[in-house]
Structure formats: structure tokens, C-alpha cells
Amino acid sequence: MRELKALTEISRSPPPFPDDAARGSGQPVVVIPGFLSPEISTARLREFLAHQGFTPYDWAQSLNLGPTRKNLAGLEAHIEKIARAHGSRVSLIGQSLGGVIAREMARRRPDLVAQIITLVTPIRPPVATPLAPLAHIASLFWDEETHPVLLRASQPVSVPLTAIITSVDGMVDWRASVPDSDPLTEIITVAGPHTTMGSHPEAQRVIAARLAAVH
């Protein structure tokens, strides 16, 4: 109920973008939505990124039903195209389950991925969540590639990773979102709801700072 209230409030009146956030110089960024979320769910975060001088892209795969073969192949091709257009590697931001997909992309194509930023991403199955009945329905669309991706979600990646978590997460057990300690991994706690983390000013400051550090 707390998450639904936060989502309703932020949809009606989103907080202003932080005026002290770092600015970019056109760095490409792909934003991957959360579970059962469409591309429009990341529109506010992409608007912030564009406002700060980055070049944001949606993930171009429509509704996120999970790390299916179709989604992974389509996203990889999308990132390849963006990397060629910019002549540089691409940063990935994954909201919730979108972060699992971002981590998998980094494992498969570290040559294309500059860094990963995950927002409240559960990586340690099984994950306790009120969305479990919907996850069961979504699993009907999964293929043999999906389960292995979910099971290795917590394995380290070879690119810099910033994991933004919240201890007041109302959608998943926040402890499932904490990655293992690693020289390439930074964990940052932001006190805010799971569903609206991409619109949280403090999370936006962190995101902009990490993206601006990539040249």
C-alpha cells in the first residue's frame, strides 16, 4: 500500500530534478524498465538524463516480461547499434528486474557496456514479493534461457556496477538486492520507495555523477 501511494503521488506531482546533479556530454545510456513495466515507465528518468546532457534511450523491447531469449537478443542488437552510432560503450540503468537484464548484458558483452547502475534490483532468488502471482503468470512466457539468467543474477560482472538499494523497499526483501562486495561494485542506500526510485532526487544525483564519470 505504501508503494502504491508513493507511485500515485509521484505520478500526480513528480519532484523537481536536482539542480546540483552532475552534467553529461552526450554519453549514451539505455534505461531498462522493471518487471511487467513498459518503456513509458522510465520516461521521467530519461527526461532527467536528457535534461542533464546525457543521451538516453529506452530499451526498445516493449513490456518487460523478464530475461527471455527475445528480450536479450533484441536488447543486445539495440546496444550494438547505439555503440556504433556514438563510437563508445553504453551505460545501462536497470530498474528492479531490469537490473538483472543489465547485469546479464554486461556478462555477455562487456565490450559494449561501460557501466551498470541498478535501482532496487533483486538478485538473490527466490525473491519474496507481493508480485509473486504475476511472476508466475509471466513465467508462462519464459524459455529455457530465462531461468539460468535469473539464477546467476548475483554473479559479479566485469564492468563498474553501482547498486542503489533501499531498506524501506515495499516490493521485495531489500536484502535480496545487496550484491557481494567486489572492487568494481559500489552499494548506495537511498531512503525511498521501490517503485519510484528512478524519480528520487538523491538517486538521480548518484546516477548523474556515475554517468558523468564515463568519457
Task: Describe the structure using short key phrases.
six-stranded parallel beta sheet, alpha/beta, 215 residues, 15% strand, 6 strands, Rossmann fold
Structural description of this entry:
This protein has 215 residues and is of the alpha/beta class. The chain has a single domain (2-10, 23-212), classed as Rossmann fold. 35% of the residues lie in helices and 15% in strands. It contains seven helices and six strands, in the order αβαβαβαβααββα. α2 (43-51) links the parallel β1 and β2 (55-58). The N and C termini lie far apart (41 Å). 43% of the residues are buried. The mean pLDDT is 91.
How do the helices and strands line up, and which of them pair or pack?
Elements: H1 2-12, E1 28-32, H2 43-51, E2 55-58, H3 69-86, E3 90-95, H4 97-108, E4 113-119, H5 132-138, H6 146-151, E5 161-165, E6 185-189, H7 201-212
Parallel strand pairs: 1-2, 1-3, 3-4, 4-5, 5-6
